Cyanophage baseplate Pam3 plug gp18 domain-containing protein
Amino acid sequence: MVSISVTDSNDFVETVTLDDKVYKLHFAYNGNSKDWTIDIRDSNNVDIVRSIKIVPNFPLLAQYKRHDLPKGELIAVVNNNKQVITRKDFINNSAILIYIPKEEVNELLETAV
């Protein structure tokens, strides 16, 4: 599992290495709709997937089947019953963004059955 840092800003790009490959994650907070989205880009800043809404405790990549995406899962984890992630939730540790490699996802699924 990899924890991904989130900057105290409405719009920023975080460079991360997932599955031994460099990605650029573009985070954007929309003050009107009060939600976060994420774009996933390759190391050359070319979009792979855009405008994934960040929702709590839900696999963010599961609906996307692209060969150039990370094979695991991105999940914004919250430890309460919140249905949305607010502007400051990543900063005040009410939410964390994690990447779970595919092997770990498979292990979790096997133990859940």
